[in-house]
Amino acid sequence: MAALQSVAAKSAASYDVVVVGAGFAGMYMLHKLHVQGMTARVFEQGSGVGGTWYWNRYPGARCDVESMQYSYSFSDELQQDWNWSERYAPQPEILAYANHVADRFNLRSDIQFDTGVERAEFDERANIWSVTTSDGKTVTAKFVVLATGCLSNARKPDIKGLDAFKGKVYHTGHWPHEPVDFCGQRVAVIGTGSSGIQAVPVIAEQARQLTVFQRTANFSIPARNAALTEEERKWFRQNYPEVRRFAREEARAGIYTEMPDRGALDDGDNERRSKYEARWQRGGLTFMSVYNNLGIDQTANDTDADFVREKIAEIVKDPETAKLLQPNNHPIGSKRICIDTEYFAAFNRPNVTLVDIKSNPIEEITSNAVRAGGKDYEVDAIVLATGFDAMTGSVAKIDIRGRNGQTLNQKWAEGPKTYLGLMSAGFPNLFVITGPGSPSVLSNMIVSIEQHVDWIADCVVYMRDRGLETMEANKDAEDKWVAHVNEVAYTTLYPQANSWYMGANVPGKPRIFMPYIGGVGPYRQICNEVAAKGYEGFTMAGTERARAAS
Ligand code: NA7
Predict the structure, then answer these.
(1) Which residue has the least CA distance to atom 2 on ligand 1?
(2) Which residues pair with 430 in a beta bridge?
(3) Is residue 49 a contact partner of residue 23, using CB atoms and an 8 Å limit?
(4) CB 29 within 8 A of CB 154
């Protein structure tokens, strides 16, 4: 590799690495590059760090992974110092944590805020990327790392008349920075995924009237959120080495929890019910790990789904509303399970109404109402909790051109193709953090982010040490990986749901199961083995020369 620039060359518009995005992935990537003495520039379209947690400021927004585990592990001092206040951190606290990390590790001076990356083009003669930003400037870099986030491209639905609505329209994924007060207002929430489910109970407390427009009922488990005690924090702090090791190496989803050793049908009805009840009382995402076959065996899954449907019927007083809220068109867990605080109970309030838009679709939005099934629901404000163009949406917004001028959008027209979710053939020195083809959104994101950043950072140092110019995924390795990702997905119940994992929430998006379902532990092992074999499946230009020299 033409000598990587020294830190002294920092002010030049040429860097070892350009990182796109200053969320948790981009921030840790920058920190690693600092440690390795590389020059880097991070471009971030928001005015601050935090990524998802910068944009998703809607009422009730909080993480669905427990705070003590949804946090960086790379610095023991950091994890010993930071005081999470609740079992599930609310958005403002996660954003404060992101800001603390940016300050503590001196990241800000290398982040350019309010700047989107619009184009990245690989120059095959010079082996260099040219990156053009929204301020009209172009910088060059040896490597580009896309830390663009999986749920960062908020999707506004194509509903007739939406732009003509006279009241305020909000999207949960693009919430205003100033406080939004719904007191005394009639509010519509469209969408009942994780964001809608978190927002509804909070908005219900403020609004005069809340109308929830539901297309698909979702499974949701009580979060049982509570203040963390000093004793709980202390337990984690003392046990972090094992908690983090387990999350990285053994867990499927990057979360420290029990690993079930039996299937749902191995227990009798009473035993099974009491286990579900215990997990329901405990609350949280690990509800799905009561048994080891809930994600793969339909009959086993039905026992779990039936339990949750019964719970919904117990909580919701009006039988008709309860029936509508009971999910019945996908296996439990085949869409990311939601966790909530009093979501179903919110429908017992006199000011909350559920409208089923599966059987009575929204026809249009008028200047003052949402019209569905021929009826006008007059509202003052509309909250779109309609999700994201997930996993690929933010990458697709950048005009990325690799070898022979091919764009990444052309290459991914029929679905994303990557080797290990890290690189795509034909796009040398371009890495994706938690990209499609890696465990990503099926895991505790911070565990997956740290694994990818460490792997990429090691790889860049490997190349620097050997004087290597380019690294690129081999087409055959990529094809095999894409086939493997699909094959594993189809051994599970996941593909049965019309989920954003499949791209099914975006009209016209190819239906491909995007994340790798093999589990973070096995996936990490695969990545480590690939690296140990001299980056098997990748071509590094100059490999032979470098090997001969060593
Ligand atoms: P999701 O999970 O994609 O949920 C979006 C919701 O919006 C879902 O209920 C959709 O119904 C609904 N939706 C989407 N488009 C429309 C239109 N056009 N009309 C009516 N309803 C619509 O996004 P979230 O933000 O809630 O959560 C994303 C992830 O963030 C979540 O999984 C966690 O990991 C955190 P549908 O199901 O498509 O029928």
Answers:
(1) 193
(2) 144
(3) yes
(4) no
